[in-house]
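ingest -> validate -> predict -> emit
validate: passed (alphabet ok, no gaps, 330 aa)
predict: started
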Amino acid sequence: MHAAARQRLAELAARAIPVASQPTPVEELSRLSGALGLRQSPGRGPRLLIKRDDALPFAMGGNKVRKMRLLARQALDQGADTLVTMGGVQSNHARVTAAMAAATGMRSVLVLNGAPAPSPNGNALLQKLFGAEIVLVGTREERDPMMEDVARRLERDGRRPFIVPLGGSTAGGALAYAHAFSELLDQIDPPDVIVHATSSGGTQAGLCAGAALAGVRTRIVGVSADDPRAGIEAIVRDLVMAIGGKAGVPALSYEFTEVDDTFVGPGYGIPTPASAEALDLAARTEGLLLDPVYTAKAMAMLIAAWRRGAFAQYQTVLFWHTGGIPALFA
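emit:
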């Protein structure tokens, strides 16, 4: 166990913008597990828990809040006055970036692809409420060059932009989830399996780095919402190593991790029968809201694995809820 490295991560995390109280709760999903066929006798069958990062009390919560608390601090330390990032028109990351800019006295410019709704809804409405300047482009491929154009324009106007890459998935943002793993270990014993939604790789990398530094063997399964497995796995490996560098542990790695890209379906943001069932089942059994883009597909994977007996009788399985609730209203 890398005690000194974990202390270093705690010190870095302590400098985060203080806008969301933590820890987020860990709860038992006994009614959902019962609906999936778990016999209710004590000690029989796997145990199903949830870590509620959807309950982070800032800008409607979600995993991007943890990352942006650190990235906004980094921006302020560098003298920035404007956050610039990118995503789709209903991006959770863009919503949280705009909110963090507002909360810290900065401006935000969001480079977004996709067609805007006739009347803003979901994340698009919240981005507007948080005062973001929206720059629309036609495709994902146009976002990166447009962000550079926006940064140059801001600099010509005398402003000091700070570019936040897609999803806030830099080593500086992802280490928030290395610290979040330590937070989890203060609440419960290490779970056998963690299942969560993944896309830009930062959340999964942070959890893997946290597990590696804690010396545990939790299997960490990221369920892709869009990109192929190989690409996300490469991002996760690189970010784990980079987080290790920040913590003073060069060449950090974690072998008990995987990416499942078999629940994407027709594409990003397009519901599948399995994700629609997961969204409905979580709501009807637990009063738990998932989102159709990310967490419903991750829960669909967990449900399918549970039904085929992939989890051992005495295992603890934890679903890490990464938020995204505004997508329900888009």
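DSSP finds eleven helices and ten strands in the chain.
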